[in-house]
Amino acid sequence: MSENFYRVLHYGALFFFLSGLGISLFTENTNKANKIITGIASLLILVAGMGLIAKALEIGHGSSWPAWIHAKLTIWALLSIGGPVLAKRLGKGRVAAFYVILILATTAAYLAVNKPF
Ligand code: HEM
Q1: I need a labelling partner for 10 at 20 to 30 A (CA). Which of 39, 42, 69, 117 fits?
Q2: Domain that includes residue 63, residue range
Q3: What residues contact residue 17 under an 8 Å CB cut-off, 6+ apart?
Q4: Whole-angstrom Cα distance, residue 101 to residue 3?
């Protein structure tokens, strides 16, 4: 697979994931299909991220990763685990939670573009 393929997959999966979280946070009738699609999208963000590590950054198997990738993985884990938990349990504060999710996603994009560390 090419770099372009993984890059579009990374973006596409992000759109599905963030929108899916929005649906679960803000609609009463979020269904199983939405939860499954959000979960698959989360996995595809990771898969495409790995593809980009290999194709865009040309980092091979066994070589160590720059720190910004570890930071992105942490953000990914926070959103993938925390997002659905918040959607299920949160009473008040859903709008604030959603904006925090978007700020974290924007931080992940910043890290990929600027590679600050
Ligand atoms: C919610 C989490 C994430 C968000 C919002 C996000 C966002 C982005 C965005 C917007 C880009 C495109 C930057 C560009 O086109 O110049 C990108 C690139 C990239 N992402 Fe992610 N990402 C996330 C998770 C991950 C994870 C988990 C990994 C690693 C496994 C990863 C690895 C990469 C890599 C290697 C690139 C390419 C950087 C380059 O081309 O120089 N991302 N990410």
Answers
A1: 117
A2: 3-114
A3: 38, 41, 42, 45, 79, 80
A4: 27
What pLDDT, in 10s, does the model give residues 78-92?
999 999 999 999 999
Residue nearest atom 33 in ligand 1 by C-alpha distance: 49
What's the predicted TM-score (pTM) here? 0.96
Which residue of 8, 9, 10 sits with most ligand 1 atoms within 8 Å of its CB, as the best mutation to test the pocket?
A: 10
Question: Into how many domains does the chain fold?
Answer: 1
Q: What is the dihedral of CA 101, 103, 109, 111, to 10 degrees?
A: -110
CA distance 51 to 1: 8
- Judge if the beta carbon of residue 49 lies within 6 A of ligand 1: yes
Ligand 1 geometric centre to CA of 107 (Å)? 10
